[in-house]
User: Fold Diphosphomevalonate decarboxylase from Chilo suppressalis.
Amino acid sequence: MSDIITMVAPVNIAVIKYWGKRNEELILPLNDSVSATLDTNVMCAKTSVCVSPNFLEDEIWLNGVKESFSNERMQNCLREIKVRATVEKSVDDVFLSWKIHVCSENNFPTAAGLASSAAGYACLVSALAKVYKIKSDVSSIARLGSGSACRSVYGGFVRWHSGVKIDGSDSIAVQIADKSHWPEMHALILVVGDTKKKISSTKGMRISTKTSDLFQYRIQNCVPKRTEDICEAILAKDFVKFGEITMKDSNQFHAICLDSYPPITYMNDISNKIIELIHKYNNFHGEIKVAYTFDAGPNACLYLLQNEVPKILPLIQHIFPSSNPDTFVTGLPTHCEMINTNLLELFAQSNQKDLVKYVIHTKVGDGPAEVTDGSHLLDESGWPI
Ligand code: DP6
Assistant:
């Protein structure tokens, strides 16, 4: 039996959204996208993998439930890992023939638009790469699990190049800057709903690609310039520019969802209330201090610099009161400053509690890492603990 390898992998939240594929099987996108990778100490997927001649079949357990390994995307990842191991001659044929056990869990809600599949597949592929001793870039393999997963293979700020080749070999993620480049970049995730999303991203982008006219416009006229500009903003640590592009791109992505036929709505009234809050807040300060972005769900991800966190958090708590104020903010430690009274006057307190269920405070972090404290999810014989 092989050693048990356990890895953690991060969530990433895009600031230039990936939406639309040029090849569904190979998961090749129609546009480049850009994201920040978030700290695994706050949110992560954790995966243990081992191979053994004693296993009768490939088996996987996800969040405590045995799932089928026949899932096409999972099969594609495993197959490509083995192809790569063969090309790199990193393990022998006998080792390649052994069956595999995988046990994985997320420490945050699955399928709530919180990029859980990205962290999950990045973790699976990174752990497999370690077991099969693969040295080359594995972002193109993680991509086969879920497109956005390729960006979670690296830390810091990451660009997924759509590539032009038919075989997808140039559709890879590349790090723009590591986490130490802009350590002040924090994120607040406002969890509005943690139930499973209505329409999966895969299905949603298929509908948009086929039916939205605005979609074609976005790909041709907006994304290329925005991508270059936001990469520049990241390298120059220009938050105002970063924030403006982030918000505009999120808004355009959701406009495309509405322009799809039938229309797709991922955001809800609470999401819109959050957008209103951020614009009022930025207007009050005369410049962009906080930027929102929404994926395929109603939860908001706010990007902001560290010194802004104690200023906006009490305002969020004021507008979205919680019945559990002590546990409302999780993740990194936080403190709150007094809310500026002039600012407070702009906002009415909501009388309905728990519209925002909780807030996750996190920051930009590293890519996947091996867990070395022995806290595996598989026992010594390779079965779930
Ligand atoms: C809105 O990566 O989940 O989060 O490739 O079909 O698995 P598939 O889709 P997925 O799409 C993510 C879409 C998004 C935007 C983004 O993360 O760039």
Remarks:
- Residues 14, 17-18, 27, 33, 117, 146-148, 201-202, 295-296 surround DP6 (CB under 6 Å).
- The CA atoms of residues 29 and 330 lie 34 Å apart.
- The radius of gyration is 21 Å.
- The chain has a mean pLDDT of 95.
